[in-house]
Each structure stands twice: as C-alpha cells, then as structure tokens.
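Hello again, I could really use a second opinion on something today. I've been staring at a protein lately and its backbone has me curious. Can you walk me through what the tokens say about the fold? Take your time with it, there's no hurry, and the full record follows here:
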Amino acid sequence: MRQHPSLEALRAPRCRHDAPFRRPNQRSASPRAVPAAQKEFAASYATLATAGAAEKLGEVAELNRDAAEAIKQYAQAFALADGSNNSVTRRDVRRKIGNVWRQAHGSDDGLGEYLLRSYDDVTQAAAAQGEKKNAGVHEISEFMLRKAPEGTPYPLASTKGAVVVVNFWATWCGPCRALEPQFERVAAQFKGERKISFLEADVDEDESLVAPYLEEVKPKIPIVFADGLDRLLAVNSLPTVVVIDREGKIVYRAQGFGEDGFERDLATAAKRALDEPAKIPPPATSTP
C-alpha cells in the first residue's frame, strides 16, 4: 500500500525567493539535449514508473518553460517518492512543485488538493497495472512472477508437479512480520526436498517499500511479488499461507497470526501433500 503523503510534506517550507525557471547560475541545456533527455526519461517512466524519472521529466518541462507539464510530472514524483530507498524525497519535490505552482498561479492556493488528487491517480494506476500481470492465467505453474526487490523474472514453471507453499505478506502488516520466523522454521524442515518450494509473495501496492524492508529483516526464503497470484488464490487478508498440492489444488489455508499449532499444522499439511503421489494421466487412446 502506497504511503499517503503526510501533512508535513504538503506543508514543506517554500523558498524565501521563488526561483525563476532558469536560475542565474544554471546552464541552459542545448536544444538537442533537452528533447533527447525528455525522450529517455519518458521511456524510463513508461517502463517503470519511478519518482526519479518523473522528477527528471518535471525538470525538463521547467527548462522548456512548460509550467503545466512540470507541475504534472512533479506531482507524480511527489506521489511516488517515499524517501527510503532512493534520492528523491517528497520534501525536495514539494519545493520544486511549489516554486512552479506559485509562478503559474501566484500563490500556493489549490496545490495541496492537486497533490492529493495526483496521489490518488498514481495509486489507482499502479493498482490497475498490478491487476494486469498474469491476467488470464489459471495454472500456478504458468505464472511469471518477479523476484523482489529487483524485479527479475521468476517463472513458476519448475513447480509443475511439485508442492508449493506460499506466504502472502506486506511491509505494513505487523502480523506478517511476526509470522515470518515461524514460516522460515517450517521451510527449514524441508530443506533439500526437491519436490516442494516455499515462497513469500509480497502484495504491496508501493513496491518501492520492499527493498528497505528486506534489507532490515533479511529473509531466508525466496521473496517474489505476487503479480496476481493472490487474486488466483483468493487472498483477501494478511498474512495468508497456502499449501498447493502436486495437482495445483489448495489443500491448506491459514489466515492471520496467532493460531496455536500453526507450525505443526503447516508442516503436517506440507508433508501430506509431498507424500501424496502425483496422479499420472491415462495414456491417450487412438481411435481406429
């Protein structure tokens, strides 16, 4: 879930003197450099919407004296920034957009409302993008997930015919953090088993929060972005742990944290699914 901009960020102090689009000590970009840079940052933003790319697009718009576009891009950067794992902070972006806004409107009136609307738009767009991943896929082994936090492909094709145990979590979920060591202890019991995989699937809307979280907790189990797997398995609360058998059916589900015997029950369910032989489909018969 993307962190909502705080009132403190919205009220960041303005500069004593609003700087013009081109500061006295600022070098002008060459006529060729600006369009080239704009194209590069736009392509980067289209591939992965980041605060850094949006901020650069805002700066290019400033150089082009396009106040409306600069405000739009800075507002997107403001919504995307969290200040935890990159150099873009909401306070810095707030100063930039405040400067352009005052030049265009004469005061800060209306800026707060504009930033909140932009935040809602960016959040909804990110959620819609997440829903598109693996759309139409109905078999777990056909899912193409991404390893967290770097986003490299993590196909589940190798899990076909194997048992899969997934813990769905989010950075903001306190019970998820409490469940983590229990889940890891169960996974350790199956170390070396080739026909069972343990995964932890993150469902955060704001994926930029995942890197600093993982740096803190240092998990021992592969972490992936859920990318629609939570939708397929009807996960509607966190944490949720499921065991999928060799045929792709859910044979165990635990929701929430605090159930007595969780580790025992999860280990038992995983072992039962592992011991159950995979059903071999009958050979195709040929018609005379």
About this structure: The mean pLDDT is 83. The longest strand covers residues 163-169.
